[in-house]
Amino acid sequence: MGEVLFSEPPAGYTRCEYHGLHAFKWTGEDGSERYVRYHWLPEDGVATLSREEAKERGRDYLRAELAGRLERGPAAFTLELQVAGEGDDSADPTQEWPADRERVTAGRLELTRIAADQEEGCERLVFDPLRLTDGIEGSADQILNFRPRAYDVSIRRRLKLG
Q: For the chain, which residues make up each domain, given as ranges?
């Protein structure tokens, strides 16, 4: 996990991979259960900049790059699920799972535009990683289970709701 802190800056939001640390339990129609971690892979490929290049582009270069990229058409990501194997700890996000674990392609996401109300409407929303669809549950991960409460406090403070 520490390598992210010292890696080169991404060339853009659509040019880096996103890896979830928390595991989620997926239940199949047949009742089978498997723990997975999410990996979003950019269809544009991964690209980085040197620290000097990133500084030259300015403080808000990622947003500017995203706007320019979306002018050329949608940017897409493939969702891969890394399936837990024997001995993989689904309750501890600090424990890496072996890289050779089975991966399953589960979906695709297309970004088409930046939300017009990004500065106002989205600021009123709160991310809840445990707001899940049928067939998906959180794990026993204490950090994952605490996040909704922490984010609730955050949005209340941001909106001065008490």
A: 3-114
